Amino acid sequence: MRESTMAVQGMLVLQLMLVVVVLVSTAIAAPTTVALKEHNCMQRCGNVIIPYPFGVEENCSLDEHYLITCNESKPYYGNMPILNISYEDAELRVMKLIARDCYNQSGSPLSNNSDTKLTLPKFSISNTKNKFTAVGCDTLGTIKVSRNNDSATTGCTSRCSNSSYVDDGICSGIGCCQSSIPRGVGNNYISLDSYKNHTDVWDFNPCSYAFVVEEGAFTFSKSYLRDFNEERLPMVIDWAVGNMTCQNAKTSKASYACGDNSDCYDRKNGLGYTCKCWNGYQGNPYLSDGCQEINECDDSNLNKCEHKNKCENKPLGNYTCHCPKGYHGDGRSDGEGCTANRFLIIQIVIGKYLC
Ligand SMILES: *[C@@H]1O[C@H](CO)[C@@H](O)[C@H](O)[C@H]1NC(C)=O
Ligand SMILES: *[C@@H]1O[C@H](CO)[C@@H](O)[C@H](O)[C@H]1NC(C)=O
Ligand SMILES: *[C@@H]1O[C@H](CO)[C@@H](O)[C@H](O)[C@H]1NC(C)=O
Ligand SMILES: *[C@@H]1O[C@H](CO)[C@@H](O)[C@H](O)[C@H]1NC(C)=O
Ligand SMILES: *[C@@H]1O[C@H](CO)[C@@H](O)[C@H](O)[C@H]1NC(C)=O
Ligand SMILES: *[C@@H]1O[C@H](CO)[C@@H](O)[C@H](O)[C@H]1NC(C)=O
Ligand SMILES: *[C@@H]1O[C@H](CO)[C@@H](O)[C@H](O)[C@H]1NC(C)=O
Ligand SMILES: *[C@@H]1O[C@H](CO)[C@@H](O)[C@H](O)[C@H]1NC(C)=O
Ligand SMILES: *[C@@H]1O[C@H](CO)[C@@H](O)[C@H](O)[C@H]1NC(C)=O
Ligand SMILES: *[C@@H]1O[C@H](CO)[C@@H](O)[C@H](O)[C@H]1NC(C)=O
């Protein structure tokens, strides 16, 4: 009698422990797809998909750093229009204002675009996808970066007495110069200076321009020295979550942002980490139920089965190909494929012979 009570109590304790374990292991920070739906969170703004951790409304984004403004079906990050947001590469592609500095013939400054300050407290300008670029023939373009109390300046200079040294179509260093973006550049300030207020070059180059631009999104043209009308150009921002390494982030389940079936990656360009679905899974890794198994059999581009209807989906991003009756082999177009069984060949041969 006593023993059986103890056994029952023991089972109860065990069940309780199980419940606790389950509760703890599911209490991760990443919200579910359903939770976002329940909050009526906007999934897109105009043509641009807004994936979590980004969101348009309060309670739909991870925190205020991931808030997007959706105005008249156009998304903005701060005052910068957004082209797209990717959770695969943890990138935010925005249209960034160009700095310009123009002079009249006698060297008096005309328009002066002072809105060249960029505040990115948590994210960094992609150092691999962008270049700092300055255009002009009496031009010193600088980008000053600041982090806590430290500041640093980089940039490039271009001087030319006339346009004969300037290559059309190439940012060669004369008329147009470029420099790399260092890692971890968040807040920054772009400024332009000239040596002689463009007085020596005014007839073909009255203005200087400077900007950070996605490589491949800007092609220099000689005509830009006279007139460059673009107001904004694309720039890639690297985003991440948290401000710790993966190792430290994982110890705090309450703030760990990666969902199920995903891995954590330390960020290379600044603090924090990014999440990626496991191989064979796809979806938004920042949602707890975002990473879903890929069924390779549903998409004929994803499997190499010779007979698409003989594809069998397997867990962990795998699948097996089968052969039709009377054939054998691995069924893969990049493998053995399917070969007719011996007796079938004989049948066919006999069949031919009889005919
Ligand atoms: C956001 O969530 C908090 C706490 O759950 C709640 O008090 C607040 O009303 C919510 N805001 C919106 C806009 O739903
Ligand atoms: C939305 O955009 C319009 C014009 O594009 C502008 O007048 C308005 O101030 C914007 N509203 C907000 C909240 O930014
Ligand atoms: C994002 O926008 C750029 C430029 O418009 C485009 O080249 C790229 O394919 C887009 N990426 C995604 C994931 O939509
Ligand atoms: C340039 O601007 C200055 C100041 O506005 C003015 O005094 C000067 O006459 C202008 N020069 C020319 C050539 O327009
Ligand atoms: C040259 O430009 C600077 C501002 O860029 C201005 O302060 C200075 O007065 C200009 N010099 C002349 C001679 O106009
Ligand atoms: C441009 O304007 C800003 C602020 O109005 C000023 O600090 C800066 O010196 C100006 N630059 C030039 C070249 O006039
Ligand atoms: C920044 O500078 C202030 C005063 O100059 C100093 O008190 C503070 O400790 C510095 N912070 C860092 C992170 O260096
Ligand atoms: C450029 O300047 C050089 C020397 O000042 C001159 O010989 C040449 O003709 C100029 N070329 C053009 C296209 O103005
Ligand atoms: C890291 O993030 C936490 C929570 O958002 C914040 O309290 C803390 O100050 C941050 N630490 C640094 C070094 O940014
Ligand atoms: C997928 O299955 C094939 C054969 O069934 C096996 O050779 C391969 O290692 C598997 N791949 C993974 C990632 O499990």
Automatic annotation (TrEMBL):
GO terms for molecular function: calcium ion binding; kinase activity; polysaccharide binding. It is found in: Membrane. SMART domains: EGF, EGF_CA. Residues 293-333 form the EGF-like domain. Gene3D superfamilies: Laminin. It is a single-pass membrane protein. It comes from the Eukaryota. This is Wall associated kinase 5.
